[in-house]
């Protein structure tokens, strides 16, 4: 199969990444609804809906802000501004969603941790979205630097590049498996989601070193800075994890 994969159905070229992106949202939400029915939710329905709204608003804003900060370009015409508005990144969406949830919980006075139910649907959604990223090849900025490593692939520009989307698919599958194992150990409420965020943002921090980023601050990309901010946010959980493993 040649990349980018650009199927034509009934005379129309299909944006496969966009199709899988919408599919990721739909399947991810249906998986969340399925899990919520099977588990006792400590948060009442009206508060859960407020939390979802906060997550959605935070994710929308965060994904756009970080998408801009990946490669800051200032424009003056309306078309370029609209194109810029469509630039987004999952990293900003995740951290923005986290902040949106915390703000929503403050407003409604909810004290219970709310992230565990979202953990596996988020992983599934990202997984489906990354399939779209891979099929889009160099049309999406999810490809890696050129490489002579055996995993190098032609993603559309006739150069051997790190297929970062494939690396992430493998990582997400492994992470899903291990978090499922941890879930069976009756972790304290909220800890499963924290482990997911710590694992995913750590992975993305290191994978950024093999991406052709063009905007850096202090030698690291804006995404890597966000990763460090997220890990700092969860520093207590990380320290407790190290103490637990050392004892």
Summed up:
With 247 residues, this protein is mainly alpha-helical. The protein is 64% helix and 5% strand.
Describe this structure in words.
- The strands form 3 sheets. The chain has a two-stranded antiparallel ribbon. A two-stranded antiparallel sheet has the order 3-4.
- The longest helix has 26 residues.
- The protein has 9 helices and 6 strands, in the order E-E-H-H-H-H-H-E-E-H-H-E-E-H-H.
- Helix 5 packs antiparallel against helix 6 and helix 5 runs parallel beside helix 7.
- The chain starts with 7 loop residues before the first strand and ends with a helix.
- Helix content is about 65%, strand content about 5%.
- The chain is globular.
- The chain has about 250 residues and is mostly helical.
- The mean pLDDT is about 90.
- This is Diacylglyceryl transferase.
- Pfam families: LGT (PF01790).
- Keywords: Cell membrane, Membrane, Transferase, Transmembrane, Transmembrane helix.
């Amino acid at each position: 199969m040649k990349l980018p994969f650009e199927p034509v159905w009934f005379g129309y070229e299909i944006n496969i990444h966009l199709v899988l992106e919408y599919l990721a949202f739909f399947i991810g939400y249906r998986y969340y609804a399925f899990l919520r029915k099977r588990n006792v939710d400590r948060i009442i329905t009206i508060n859960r809906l407020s939390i979802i709204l906060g997550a959605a608003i935070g994710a929308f804003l965060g994904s756009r802000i970080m998408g801009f900060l990946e490669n800051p370009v200032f424009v003056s015409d309306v078309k370029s501004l609209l194109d810029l508005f469509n630039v987004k990144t999952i990293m900003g969406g995740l951290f923005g969603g986290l902040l949106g949830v915390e703000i929503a919980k403050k407003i409604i006075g909810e004290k219970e941790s709310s992230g565990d139910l979202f953990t596996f649907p988020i992983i599934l959604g990202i997984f489906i979205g990354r399939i779209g990223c891979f099929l889009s090849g160099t049309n999406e900025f999810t490809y890696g630097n050129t490489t002579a490593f055996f995993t190098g692939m032609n993603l559309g520009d006739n150069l051997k590049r790190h297929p970062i989307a494939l690396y992430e698919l493998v990582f997400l599958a492994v992470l899903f498996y291990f978090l499922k194992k941890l879930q069976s150990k009756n972790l304290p409420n909220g800890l499963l989601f924290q482990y997911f965020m710590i694992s995913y943002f750590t992975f993305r921090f290191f994978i950024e070193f093999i991406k052709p980023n063009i905007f850096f601050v202090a030698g690291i990309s804006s995404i890597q800075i966000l990763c460090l901010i997220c890990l700092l946010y969860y520093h207590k959980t990380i320290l407790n994890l190290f103490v637990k493993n050392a004892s």
